[in-house]
Amino acid sequence: MLPPFVNDTLKWLRDEAVLPFGAAQHVNEDGEPLISNPGAGAYAAPVAAAITGVIAGGALLLFWNMWLPPFAIAAATVLTLSALRGARLESGTVRAGDRLAGASGTGTAALALLLLVEVAAIEGLIFYHAPSAALVIIAAVIFSSTASIAFRLTQPARPLEDIGDAARPSQGAALQGLMLVTIVIGTALLLPVFRIGPTAGALVASLAAFVIVVAVARNQNKDDVPDCAATAGKAAEVATLLAVLALVRTP
């Protein structure tokens, strides 16, 4: 039997990525459906995201060692990361943009803008120092995952209707564990290389992106939460990369 931390990490890898870690368990021993708790084992989600980020960062270094142009490296890295997550954040961003704006094509335009900024930010970080860029990608993936999960745990802010006699569970403890592990891992990745300014900037930028998406999606309903959570994750990822690039290029 695997330790609880390993089980929780594998659970988040199954839920947040398309890596082959076995099928998710949705029934109990009697074959009855399990009631899902979205905050279960949230403290392990940043570790699972870090594993995905390491693969994407490794892809960046592989492309870099193949002497590809920086733009091609950045684009291929973004495509690799999207493939690792089954394009979940990208497709969710498109659907959320269309729903929130009430106009077809808005989500596609928003995604195109985010991807353009993301590729440009990674390209700039590669010019700065490619191995360091891989560390930023890992941190950005962690912050992205945390923003997406935090959105699902807190939104809609207004109470959801009760299901039978079971009220909506409080996710305060799950959020605390999620945020604590995210801050510790993100700081450990960025602080030794980029020092305090870019590290703090990455944390603040990802939080600001999350808050902006929450504000924009204030009229969402519960059916919109997964797609809006994907948008929050993608926005936090892009904001992290852009913030670090801006601060390392500041004299």
Give the key terms.
single chain; globular; mainly alpha; 251 residues
Question: How would you sum up this structure, described in words?
Answer:
- By secondary structure, the protein is mostly helical.
- Helix content is 72%, strand content 0%.
- The protein has helices at residues 4-16, 45-65, 70-84, 88-101, 106-154, 172-194, 196-216, 225-248.
- Helix 2 runs antiparallel to helix 3, helix 5 (106-154) packs across helix 6 (172-194) and helix 6 (172-194) packs antiparallel against helix 7 (196-216).
- The radius of gyration is 18 Å and the shape is globular.
- The N and C termini lie far apart (53 Å).
N/C terminus separation: 53 Å
Give the SSE order as H and E letters.
HHHHHHHH
Shape: globular
For the report, how would you describe the main beta sheet? none
What is the element layout, followed by pairings?
Layout: H1 4-16, H2 45-65, H3 70-84, H4 88-101, H5 106-154, H6 172-194, H7 196-216, H8 225-248
Summarize the model shown.
With 251 residues, the chain is an all-alpha fold. The protein has eight helices and no strands.
